[in-house]
Amino acid sequence: MKDEFWFSVFNSACLFVSQFEDVVDHLRYVYEYLAIENKVSPDYVFEFNKIDSFFVIILNERELFRGKDFIESVLMAEFLVFQVPIKNNSEQIVYHAAWASIGQKAIILIGESNSGKSALVFELVQSGCMFGSDEWTAFDCSHKKILGFPRKILLKNRNPLITRYGLSKSDRNLLSDFDSRIYSGLPADSAVAEAAGFDPVFIFLKYVPEKKGVDMAGLSIFSVIEQLISACVNRENFNQKRFENLIGCIDISNAFTLEYSSLEDAKNNILETVKR
Fold first, then answer.
1. Per-residue model confidence as pLDDT tens digits over 85-95
2. What is the total count of domains within the chain?
3. Rounded to 5 degrees, what angle do the CA atoms 241, 246, 249 make?
4. Residues 58 and 111 in one domain
5. Domain carrying residue 203
6. Measuring CA to CA, how many Å separate 159 from each of 52, 99, 179, 256, 258?
7. Are the beta carbons of 143 and 93 closer than 8 angstroms?
8. Prediction pTM value
């Protein structure tokens, strides 16, 4: 008997099927906010099964991965079910960026790994913003829309927010013992941001542990474009029209660098900036 989970990644319908019900339930838990009811013909069918002594992941009848370690295989499944649709996305430009919305503004957080994207978007949602994504953000430049990837917010290792908010691991999270990761759901009174024509506020993060206070500064249009292209995960989809549309989405008065050490100070600074 096989279990299944239907979900959507940037408008691509996906189906995950496995003989392991706990693996399907793990993905159903992590990607709860991406679940879809309309079970049409899927663009991607992922299968996770055990063949002989190997755990095997198959995409549309083609083998993508095989491994002997169960946790490693679950981690790879969790990675592939969003990475494959993102890399093959020809309709939008996708960025390694988190975002949350407040009113008509989308606060887009861009930075290297461990720069605090997930933690800051978590704090913004706790402060009343709507949740877009903690990891991936898509721009539909032709229609000037921002699309989210609202998986549950991933907080890893000894993130101080885990203790501050009393977060605990779920029994449905098979990877909690892998790197002490916690997937946090949204507060009861918050919501997921729908794809819409928000006014983007770009904030390029740099976490500096020894820093006192917060430094926020404006950027040139050339610096913004350079950093956006660097953060793009499907650059092959850039063409002249999309590049021009991207430039048209940028209001240079709403693009900043942010150096910080305190999440609370950074969050307050961001909210003050977007509310001006």
1. 988 887 788 88
2. 2
3. 130
4. no
5. 93-274
6. 39, 19, 11, 25, 20
7. no
8. 0.91
State the Cα–Cα distance between residues 81 and 9, nearest whole angstrom: 9
At 56-90, the pLDDT tens digits run 999 999 999 999 999 999 999 999 999 999 888 87
Sign of CA dihedral 130, 133, 134, 140: negative
Token pair recorded at residue 272: 């003050």
Cα–Cα dist 270/274, whole Å: 6
Reference 27, options 61, 75, 69, 89; nearest CA is 75
Question: Same structural domain for residues 216 and 245?
Answer: yes
Whether residue 108 is found in the same domain as residue 220: yes
Residues 53 and 80 in one domain: yes
Per DSSP (E only), the strands in 11-140 are 12-18, 44-51, 54-59, 62-67, 93-102, 105-110, 130-133, 136-140
* Last residue within a domain, chosen from 22, 53, 87: 87
**CA 76: distance to chain centroid?**
16
From CA 42, how far away is CA 8, in angstroms rounded? 9
